[in-house]
Amino acid sequence: MASAKSTQTKSTPMLKRAAASAYLGSVIEYYDFFVYSVCAALVFKDVFFSNLTPAIGTLASLATFATGYLARPLGGIIFGHFGDKLGRKRMLIVSMFTIGIASTAIGLLPTYDQAGLIAPVLLILIRVIQGVAIGGEWGGAMLMSAEHSTSNRGFWASFTSAGAPTGQLVSALVIAGTLAAMGPDAFIAWGWRLPFLASVLLLVIGVIVRSAVDESPEFLAAKKRTPKAGIPILATLRKQPLTLLLAVGVGLSAFMFQGLLTTYSIAYGVQIGIERQTILNALSFSSFFAIFGIIGWSRLSDTIGRRPLVIAGAVFIAVWGFALFPLLETKNGIIITIGMVVGQGIIHPMIYGPLAGLYSELFDTEHRYTGASLGYQIAGIGAGISPVLFAAIMSSTGSPSTIPLSIVLLVVAAISILCIWRLGETKSRTLSEQRFAETPAATGAAPTGTAATGTAPTTDTPPAAMEGPTQ
Description:
Blueprint: H1 2-8, H2 12-42, H3 44-47, H4 54-85, H5 88-106, H6 112-115, H7 118-146, H8 153-191, H9 193-197, H10 199-211, H11 217-225, H12 232-239, H13 241-271, H14 276-304, H15 306-329, H16 333-360, H17 368-397, H18 403-423, H19 440-443
GO molecular function, one term: transmembrane transporter activity
Subcellular location: Cell membrane
Protein name: Sugar phosphate permease
């Protein structure tokens, strides 16, 4: 069987190296991401949109934050295509390099007062390039861990996701340290550039580690099995459109909640009079707990399944959406920190952690990079648009009530529950199993059978009805 052959080339040392590479890549990605998100909430309205009123400037600044997210699905398609055709490793080195260079370039941009309209235009352009590269980073890094593993796939794949709060923690500490050392005025004037420029150091370390990882054994086995596989994005849309749609829905609540916790909470907190340092400290503290939350919940998902944790996480997101704003409004540093730790360190990882293992199990190897990346990145738009959406809702209602924002989270949490219920449990599927092989008309050859049935469906079948053999 294909699964038996593919596992022969897998080794524990290479698996650990792949997990370390995925973790570092995600640290770099989210370091750059959160530096941008904090600066978009606190600084860019004064640096790149100083010609606008403070409220409109904040909205415009958060909109540039969202553009990076809108570019991510395109990155998932581009990097997914070449990752499924040429290999995961090559694309991961390209994506990491592009992310690091783009972030460094932001630190070198002129301000609006120095260059006029060209300054925000360049900011948006670089943000789009960075978004395209980030769109291909997570899927490939996650697959390198998942496809090197022979057991506990959720645990090993989760190191990609665990890099997110680590990058956030590092960025928050760097920004908080810089802000404390030079004060708000100097930070807004020029100090905000330093965290962006520092990303080049992480880039060098990450490229060195990533270059030492072997290509995914599942990818190599798939190339031998179907050397003339079609266009990955077309294969995904033709064979698994429903799976892709449900994958987006599963992750949507986690990303909308992430956007609230890591970006909008900062802008909202400053708006109601919370000290910048207080909210950044709370964010740093909660990020530390999120690292262990992601890994811990993901390991548990290898035992009890992905679906129970996603459902529980979505329920808690719906509840905490009503609790978080009153906690912020106390303006008490300890209470705010507790609210952020519970939200980001415990609740959010219940969905976000198992997503890595879940997405690796939904798509065939021949188009897995594309399918997993596209599902994750389209869902990830939620984290980009939620701060803008929340700010727009608060601005349009003219009311200090945050109940409408909590209702939005309630709705997307319900969507995630419905989607994971439809997908079913996936933890025991074998990655080498082909569930959606090409038809004879598409390949000019006999259809490749699945490991479980010996036949291959040509249309998207609900994954819950297609459980693979226990790995």
